Amino acid sequence: MSEEIEYSSEMGVELVAKMGDDKMVAQAARVSTLGLENDREKYVGLVKALMREGHWSPFMHPTMTIAFDVPLFVRSQLVTHYSLARSEFSMRYAEAKPKFYVPSKHRKLVQVGKSLDYRRERGTDEQKHHVQLAHEQQAILAWAEYEEMIEAGVANEVARNVLPQSTYTTLWLTGNLRSWMSFLSNRNDPHAEAETHSAAAAVAAIFAYHYPVTYSAWNENR
Q1: What is the pTM of this model?
Q2: Active site residue ranges
């Protein structure tokens, strides 16, 4: 093995596939007639009305599958959204990759205030140095122990136990637009953990690009 360790502060988010568009939302609402054809003004107005009145079923027909390349502690937050189908790289059946999360220099490190009602502050240069060094040292130690166990014939499912929460994994999530809106309501929020917020912001950008009418209507009615 002896692969070189990679450090990253990035949250990888990429569209794998999509089905449907904004027009499909309107067509689903008018499934008995399908009389909208290509009249953009009519279907845009209908999508906005559906969102405004909280008629969610039509938004459950288009879907997106999104791939995430994130550390384990972010994965743990993403998979709590049970309406999203999930497939994940298995460190039980395959060997892990030596990629570990280290906070960027812009990551705010200090929590100030009460639980559930706090703000984050930058922290001192000394704290930043300590955080970076601690993350890198633990990654080096954990990866060395992991490699030694694998090379000694220890099963992946046992060797993986020494890997820290900063280890990156690959995850696919699939859901309809209603599910992704719920996801974004929780995760694309200033109160969300910084790394999870970053991943969710990338999801929001994908959503807005491929379903601009739905995304705009949702933002207007949040």
Answers
A1: 0.92
A2: 187
